[in-house]
Amino acid sequence: xxxxxxxxxxxxxxxxxxxxxxxxxxxxxxxxxxxxxxxxxxxxxxxxxxxxxxxxxxxxxxxxxxxxxxxxxxxxxxxxxxxxxxxxxxxxxxxxxxxxxxxxxxxxxxxxxxxxxxxxxxxxxxxxxxxxxxxxxxxxxxxxxxxxxxxxxxxxxxxx
Length: 160
Description:
Blueprint: H1 6-13, E1 18-19, E2 21-25, E3 34-38, E4 42-46, E5 49-56, H2 62-67, E6 70-75, H3 81-88, E7 100-101, E8 109-110, E9 115-127, E10 130-141, E11 149-152, E12 155-158
Antiparallel strand pairs: 1-11, 2-3, 2-6, 4-5, 5-10, 6-9, 7-8, 9-10, 11-12
């Protein structure tokens, strides 16, 4: 098997523009809700309604998300660059100070998202250095309209 130059592979993969979403999970009490920015969110199936997203196994947020009974997906608009950046890297994972929308399942959504999906965990699949979380969509809504936040060539962008 050939050894890949991971930097070159990352650059090549960056040629595929992706949407950006924030995934939230409920902790013990509202102050312990956590969030993470992902660009791996995708639809899996309409019948049953399934979506997926991926999380690095080395992330400190890995275990809380993998063990959570469900999660909420907030699809970000072009106005969400700061929120996305805040929840993308190591460090601040709290949702404190963000305008949130309560959900029936518990994990809150970003109130000004383009779309929100409330999901129960259907399964977790090992995928190399990541875990793939598959969720069953129980509820969804479209709180706002606007241009989506896009990630392309290692930078945020927007569709106009």
